[in-house]
Amino acid sequence: ARHIDLWQILPVDERSSEVLHTSYLRPGLTEAEHSKAVDMAPWICETVVDGEDFWVAGRTEPGLRLGLVDHVLFGRNEPAPQHLHRGFEEVLAAHRAQQAAILAWHG
């Protein structure tokens, strides 16, 4: 079913982070469905968010920072990562335009 998961996850140090707040938004949940969503939240955070999403981001970011990667595709079936991906593309395009303008100015 369509739903929204909101996670506020902040770094503690270079190797760890802490979930400060989670929200699961889906209209019409029964009490049992709500209870199951609450029970599943720690597993989802540890297994999916930390174990998969953060791992992918951690492996991708160094290449982006060095300019070695010019194309990134992830979250093909997930609207939220697609939105994040479009944001990455906008930031990368703006950075490239800024770098080109600096090079042109210094000519």
In spatial order, strands of the major sheet run 1-2
Count up the domains.
2
* Biggest sheet descriptor: 2 strands, antiparallel
Bin the helical content: 55-70%
**Care to count the β-strands?**
2
Computed Rg: 18 Å
Structural class: alpha+beta
Q: Which residues form runs of ≥5 with pLDDT under 50?
A: none
The shape, in one word, is elongated
Number of DSSP helices?
Answer: 2
Q: What portion of the residues fall into strands of 2 or more residues?
A: 15-25%
Order of helices and strands: EEHH
| Chain-averaged pLDDT | 80
Measure the end-to-end span.
55 Å
Descriptive notes:
This protein is of the alpha+beta class and 107 residues long. The protein has two domains: 1-69, no CATH class; 70-107. The chain is built from two helices and two strands. Strands 1-2 form a two-stranded antiparallel ribbon. Strand 1 (4-11) and strand 2 (17-25) form a beta hairpin. The mean pLDDT is 80.
Summarize the structure.
With 107 residues, the chain is of the alpha+beta class. It has helices spanning 31-66, 79-106; strands at residues 4-11, 17-25.
Note the main attributes of this structure:
alpha+beta, 2 helices, elongated, two-stranded antiparallel sheet, 2 domains, 107 residues, 16% strand, 2 strands
Secondary-structure topology with pairs:
Layout: E1 4-11, E2 17-25, H1 31-66, H2 79-106
Antiparallel strand pairs: 1-2
